[in-house]
Amino acid sequence: MHAGQLVVTHSTVRALIDEQFPQWRNLPLRRISATGTVHAIFRLGDMLVARLRLEVEEPELVRSEVRAEAEAARELAGRTRFPTPEPVAIGQPGDQYPMPWLVQTWIEGTVAIDDDPGESEQFASDLAEFITGVRHIDTRGRRYGGHGRGGVLADHDEWIQECLIQSEDLLDTGTLSRIWNAMRELPRGDSPDVMNHGDLLPGNLLVHEGRLTGVIDVGGLTAADPALDLVSAWHLLEAGPRRVLRDHLGTCDDEWERGKAWAFQQAIGAVRYYVDSNPTFSYIGRRTLARIAADPT
């Protein structure tokens, strides 16, 4: 999916575990097929999972980021009724893998990619409950740190214009350009930053019979625009359940439109970047943009 991406094999991960965590040497190990774009995922026994970065970065930078992910997971654990992963151990670089890596608890369930909850109003209600629970976590004075989504929409304009140019053979970029031209001017207002999961995509939400049963990939827990987690309204829900989500959250017009804009910002890059290397992820981006285009401002 990425230039210079590491090939993380079963034998490599097996060696890392056996050398660094001999207490798990006899646990079975198997790779999990997933649509995620950042990590290789290996289930270890029944209760654990190993996550290893795919793109090479400086080990000390990765170590800092892995520790931050572990701390975010600890902070979120138990704050809602929905299970989330908890950190267990941080692995070190080895002979065949050059960066630190994370072992955490396994959360059983089916991702929303494989069991689409888009028409479920019960799922929308559950999702609103999760978002509310995360928002109630004390920011402890933290604010948006200037990296990624969650700050000022207009700061992403140059990158989105590039995405639009490169997607002319994939999307109705004329319509999407007009939509973005309105979105980038949306005011932030004076709403304070709140805690957000930060990446409520279908691959990070677990479902069963149209209900939310767990949330994974929680390392992005962050203080940011309260609208950031509203991306889930367009990544996951059709029109009826989307209204249920909004009603449960009591979201005002400005915040709702910013949530739509953050979903646009995330989706427009996914379509063109992953069209060949991760078609499922690219399709999710297309579906999100179609929902946005069909939703009146």
From TrEMBL:
<protein>
    <submittedName>
        <fullName>Aminoglycoside phosphotransferase family protein</fullName>
    </submittedName>
</protein>
<feature type="domain" description="Aminoglycoside phosphotransferase">
    <location>
        <begin position="54"/>
        <end position="261"/>
    </location>
</feature>
<dbReference type="InterPro" id="IPR051678">
    <property type="entry name" value="AGP_Transferase"/>
</dbReference>
<keyword id="KW-0808">Transferase</keyword>
<dbReference type="Pfam" id="PF01636">
    <property type="entry name" value="APH"/>
</dbReference>
<dbReference type="GO" id="GO:0016740">
    <property type="term" value="F:transferase activity"/>
</dbReference>
<dbReference type="InterPro" id="IPR002575">
    <property type="entry name" value="Aminoglycoside_PTrfase"/>
</dbReference>
<dbReference type="InterPro" id="IPR011009">
    <property type="entry name" value="Kinase-like_dom_sf"/>
</dbReference>
